[in-house]
Amino acid sequence: MLLIKNGKVLINGEFLERSILIGNDGRIEKIAVDAKLKTADEVLDAAGKYALPGVIDVHVHCREPGLTHKEDFLTASKAAAAGGVATIFDMPNTKPATTTVALLEEKRKLAAAKCIVNYGFHFGATSDNIEEIKKVKNIAAVKVYMGSSTGNLLVTDEKMLNDIFGSGKRIMVHAENEAMIKANEEKHRSDSDGTKLHLKIRGNSAAAKEVERAIAIGRKHGTRLHICHMSAKEEAGIISAAKKSYNRLSCEVTPHHLFLTADSAKELGNYAKVNPPLRQKEDVAALWNAIASGTVDMIATDHAPHIREEKEQNYWNVPSGVPGLQTMLPLMLDAVNKGRLTLQQLIKLTSENPAAVFGVKGKGRIAVGMDADIAIVDMHKEKTIKNDEMLSKCGWTPFDGWKVKGVVAATIVNGKIIYGSGQISDEKTKGKEVIFNGN
Ligand code: NCD
Ligand code: ZN
Ligand code: ZN
Ligand code: ZN
Which atom of ligand 1 sits closest to the CA of residue 275? Predict the structure, then answer.
């Protein structure tokens, strides 16, 4: 039994100082003012801090199997734990890609053996695995790359997309128009590594065009459709308008699109190469406005680690992607401290909405009977984000040197403290696969 004492807990829209008693089954047993609770064998003092529902990050590339020089389930989950993330949904663009039920079963074993936070899986769509898509069970969503990104998953054919979107599964899309990307690659083939080359190749219009297409197909089938990494101001407009009449539509934004711009590539070079690309100030402003207006359903990291050797090549050879698991919550807490959003909004974006949109059982809120996945955060403490403190195997972050106010003090997964006092405190206890309602 664990007792978390005197943290501030969101109860019916208000932060109240409460203690949380966690049962041996890893679920929350009681929430009360401290004097009303008996003590437990293990006590965590959270006085002066907030107890938030553990973050559910719906977009993570754990790289296992096949790409374990970049990351694996242990290192990704350690980074998650240090970042207050209690649940991660793994992406299918591994080697081999997760596109059959048998391959998913293999991946389930790998995660069960190593992952110290809770986990779920996305299933990859190809042009010929519709039967597998129909058969697969307990997945977060079917991930469709409607534009190529890292890895070789890609589906652009209209008929195939209709079959996939009509499969009855939740669908998640990487939407950038493949033909436009390819044409721009040809056009700029001989450009030198300019800071904005990636943005020239993957412009706003490529994202806008493909998001419109995804929404049109999804609408036709009544698909539960989730748009990955919304990044362009045009997308924000399209999604916000579509949501008025398409209520099964959702979207995420990433921390790198909220905090960095194409100009960041001046310092970061090709470390900043990511799909969709970092964009302009106006786009970043549109994303923050979309958070304020409620168009954005969730923040997801798109944690996509690549090692330094891979990132330190010329533009054309550098794989796209940046890590984000360990830094998302501190960056967002800092934004709360700066008044860019409220802590209540943040909880919706990082826990409540991901749980609701993906039908996650027993998670997303701190309440009696829910799984005890909790992030204890200190809103007053300041910290400088540093490459050498990153637990991801890639060992770097685009936010190196950034000073933030608001840090993760401890992370509790299924009632166990797995991160505290700046360290992973338990890497033997493994997380559990989440259960999805529907799909
Ligand atoms: C991702 C990766 O590296 O797996 N890269 C990226 O730039 N975001 C793939 C993806 O999500 O598009
Ligand atoms: Zn993507
Ligand atoms: Zn050019
Ligand atoms: Zn991704």
Answer: 7
Instruction: Say if strands 2-11 and 14-22 run parallel, antiparallel, or are unpaired.
Output: antiparallel
Look at residue 138 and tell me whether its pLDDT is greater than 70. yes
Please state which of the four CATH numbers 3.20.20.140, 3.40.50.300, 3.40.50.10280, 3.30.530.20 is assigned to the domain occupying 54-358.
3.20.20.140
* Cβ(304) – ligand 1 distance below 6 Å: yes
Q: What are phi and psi of 129, to 5 degrees?
A: -120, 30
Mean pLDDT of 420-437: 96
Q: Cα separations (Å) of 323 from 163, 186, 365, 399, 404? A: 33, 28, 26, 10, 17
Residue 419 clears pLDDT 80, i.e. is over it? yes
Say which ligand is closest to the CA of 174.
2
Q: Does any ligand 1 atom lie closer than 6 A to the CB of residue 392?
A: no
Strands 50-53 and 42-45 come out as unpaired
193 is catalytic: no
Q: Say which CATH topology domain 2-51+371-379+387-424 has.
A: Urease, subunit C; domain 1 (2.30.40)
Domains in the chain: boundaries:
2-51+371-379+387-424, 54-358
321 and 302 in contact (C-beta within 8 Å)? yes
**Ligand 1 contact, 353 CB (< 6 A):** no
Give the Å distance between the CA of 253 and the centre of ligand 4. Answer: 11
pLDDT band, residue 195 (cuts 50/70/90): low
Please say if the pLDDT value at position 399 is more than 90: yes
| Torsion angles phi and psi, residue 166, rounded to 5 | -95, 10
By most ligand atoms within 8 Å of CB, the mutation choice from 149, 154, 270, 315 for ligand 1 is 149
Q: Report how far apart the first and last C-alpha atoms of the chain are (Å, whole number).
A: 34
Q: What is the DSSP letter of 270?
A: G
Q: How many whole angstroms separate alpha carbon 278 and alpha carbon 269?
A: 12
- Residue where the block lists tokens 């921390």: 255
Domains 2-51+371-379+387-424 and 54-358 share a fold: no
User: Using 50, 70 and 90 to split pLDDT, how confident is the model at 194?
Assistant: low
Residue of minimum CA distance from atom 12 in ligand 1 = 149
Q: Is 336 helix (H, G, I), strand (E, B) or coil?
A: helix
